[in-house]
Amino acid sequence: xxxxxxxxxxxxxxxxxxxxxxxxxxxxxxxxxxxxxxxxxxxxxxxxxxxxxxxxxxxxxxxxxxxxxxxxxxxxxxxxxxxxxxxxxxxxxxxxxxxxxxxxxxxxxxxxxxxxxxxxxxxxxxxxxxxxxxxxxxxxxxxxxxxxxxxxxxxxxxxxxxxxxxxxxxxxxxxxxxxxxxxxxxxxxxxxxxxxxxxxxxxxxxxxxxxxxxxxxxxxxxxxxxxxxxxxxxxxxxxxxxxxxxxxxxxxxxxxxxxxxxxxxxxxxxxxxxxxxxxxxxxxxxxxxxxxxxxxxxxxxxxxxxxxxxxxxxxxxxxxxxxxxxxxxxxxxxxxxxxxxxxxxxxxxxxxxxxxxxxxxxxxxxxxxxxxxxxxxxxxxxxxxxxxxxxxxxxxxxxxxxxxxxxxxxxxxxxxxxxxxxxxxxxxxxxxxxxxx
Length: 437
Description:
Dihydrolipoamide Transferase; Chloramphenicol Acetyltransferase; 19 strands
């Protein structure tokens, strides 16, 4: 008896999933434990193993379709085994009914098939049409098999309005016939000349660029849904603030060297995660969520770092950043980034975030407005570091400057609270030794 394959439940919060890819085709054999399919949830993709060995008899759900957990996806079994609800296969050698022409039906003419549609015409009819500038596709034919003959063209020319007639030079008419250009389709001032025909032929030889339709991947669908949800439900406000990175650059250089001794690469992102976790102590609302008739202040600062991957964006988060050392934050962040890019993130790594950092500085962005990741209250955008002239103590000096862009849920943080949080982040960035207090 064929074994049904259903949509597995791959996490406590998973309600639906989509087949991102079938690794086997119908009729192919599969071993027990071999990857049968790749399932995409609202957060991650998972390799799903075959529950038993045999043949993939029937695929019921195509790639890309979202279905509920427990939905029937396919049948496994032995080759030739019947599948419930499937019609019996046709005997080998059977000829499909539509392949046999009905008695008395007209057989397609090989000669007609070789001619372009609308151009079945005698040589004389073609010449007259060419001289008169008539598009033969507009002329009804009265000859055998609808062939256009001389009288058809003459009759059409006599009855057609002047707008259908195009004055054409003999050279243009010959060129149009040789190149297959319809003279009546050429827009020209007065008589159509050979140059007009050559120009039209050149344009026809270069097909216009075609639109390409890219179906949404499961990941892109989720991103679209969450970003739409954010825009529709969160009244967000953006705040930009210039930050002097001089002290932070010096601090990073020192801790980076020490981290390298322990095999850990420390980046600005890791330091900013610690800075944001420290700033939350002064402005707890920056680490909260709006929950109907209440605001939930989260005990842990679980900071997500946006990671670009093929086809979209993932935001794994480091739990309890406020309790971890800078080295621990760096180690865990890089582990999550590597797993995100290799498709090995666990579902719990994507859940429970309370604050997000997104860094586009490597692309040279000077300012941008990120979108809050529901149900979080804030997201911090990090921009490129640029050397700029700055007035200090009555003198102009060159400093490495950057803009930090904070977007906050205005239901939770008023302008003063959001600005106070961002100012505290700037203070810690410009005086990183304050992290020790």
